[in-house]
Amino acid sequence: MKIAEQIKLYTTLWQETNALYEKWAKKHGLSYYELLVILSLADKSACKQKDICQVWQLPKQTVHTILKAFVQHGWVELTPCEDDRRNKTIRLTPIGEKNICAIAGELQRCERAVWKKLGAERANALIEYTRRYNQYFQEAGLNEDT
């Protein structure tokens, strides 16, 4: 297989993976971006909007809009940070803890089943090759010299 074909196939598979997560989110009444925010909130008891933006590379306005909706659902509370009053700490409410952790838990069960099916050797290889791909891409495409 030629390099151009490999690139096209890899890109197609990458897009397919993203589409699967988007489809999973939609099946649960969520947008893909809402799912990403939920995963961040389930991972920490308290965090900041800028943390979520950095982890998922999402625009601030997108995360702000999602959090505003989650406040309306009663899932989160936003409180000013003590160290920087411009930022707000996001805390799960009891109902948010229940709903957000249930959604994240269901996705994680699905993911664990996939990784278990892959087996340790293939899973480790996937991680290693993805790490190398990202490293080589950064070296080839993001260096200031290129």
Automatic annotation (TrEMBL):
Span of the signal peptide: none
One Pfam family cited in the UniProt record for this chain: MarR_2
Gene3D superfamilies: Winged helix-like DNA-binding domain superfamily/Winged helix DNA-binding domain
Domain HTH marR-type: 1-135
Protein name, UniProt field: MarR family transcriptional regulator
Species the sequence originates in: Anaeromassilibacillus senegalensis
